[in-house]
Amino acid sequence: MSAVESKKKCKSIHIDDSDPGIPTDLLSVPLHYRDDIENILIPYGLILDRTEALATEIFNDCGNQPLICLCVLKGGYKFFADLTERIQNRNRTNGTKSLPMMLDFIRLKSYHNDKSVGEVQIIGGDDMSQITGK
């Protein structure tokens, strides 16, 4: 699938900069956050639904090619875990196809104390040369 075809297929949700969000009294918000936030811009249920849809799209589009999943820690771990779990659920429940997966984790470092060092250092990852071009 070309990048143009992929872009046509991919649908997105647009949230305008002026959108005030959803008042917290209309949603289930943990008590320890209630005094700190006024509105929720993207509700958790919507994030879960979009993650589910993305997992289905990845599973369907990858054919039988192994899927290499690389998580950038620390910020991406929750989304990464949710997405890969949903892809693995497709592997368990789909009777006609299985998508092999390889998972790896890295951290990126570009600061020393509070100053940027001008380059990004990759920390971790077993052998990054194995995933070059994939």
UniProtKB/TrEMBL annotation:
PANTHER family: HYPOXANTHINE PHOSPHORIBOSYLTRANSFERASE, HYPOXANTHINE-GUANINE PHOSPHORIBOSYLTRANSFERASE. One of its GO terms (biological process) is guanine salvage. It comes from Brachionus plicatilis (Marine rotifer). This is Hypoxanthine-guanine phosphoribosyltransferase. Keywords: Glycosyltransferase, Transferase. GO terms for cellular component: cytosol. GO terms for molecular function: hypoxanthine phosphoribosyltransferase activity; magnesium ion binding.
